[in-house]
Amino acid sequence: MENGNEASRINRCLIERQRRQHMKSLVSKLFALLPPRPNKMSVPELVDQAIAYVKQLQKKLEQYKQIKVQLEDKLASATACTTRNRMIVPPVLNIRDLGSNLEVHLITGLNSEFALSDFISILQEEGAEIISATCHHAGDRAIYRILSQAIYPRIGIATSSVHERLKSLTCLKKQHIPTAN
């Protein structure tokens, strides 16, 4: 019987040792999650610090949630105001003549009804071959960039004619922008 009791006692000791090692590992992980402390703490002090820290984080989280709600409300009211007033951004057209290449930049509001294909058609009609065409959105603006080169470099591209046609297209489109009441 003594061998059975001895084996049982050794088994309990091993289980207890594993439990203590596991607890030590958990306490170490908990200590690593807390802000740095200059001195060693007992386990109860560590748990108290962890509880206080978690409560502090919960308060901060609630404050951040309130700030988020306030900012979302401000954004919603600003968006509603902008939508009601339908701020129309006049288009900005910039054309750079680069010899046999032509670079067209157009900045419009997102509520504008510009089709990049209209600009490309005009450039092609004026003797340009499109190298690249891009559109980017930045805030409430759409930024178009078209890079083209002359189909026949000796003839070139009539920059003034392109400028006038594109300018008239932007003015025409500006007149057709619907506004909300």
UniProtKB/TrEMBL annotation:
Residues 7-57 form the BHLH domain. Keywords: Coiled coil, Nucleus, Transcription, Transcription regulation. It comes from the Eukaryota. It is found in: Nucleus. Residues 47-81 form a coiled coil. One of its GO terms (molecular function) is RNA polymerase II transcription regulatory region sequence-specific DNA binding. GO terms for cellular component: RNA polymerase II transcription regulator complex. Its main location: nucleus. SMART domains: HLH. This is Transcription factor bHLH168-like. The gene is LOC111288638.
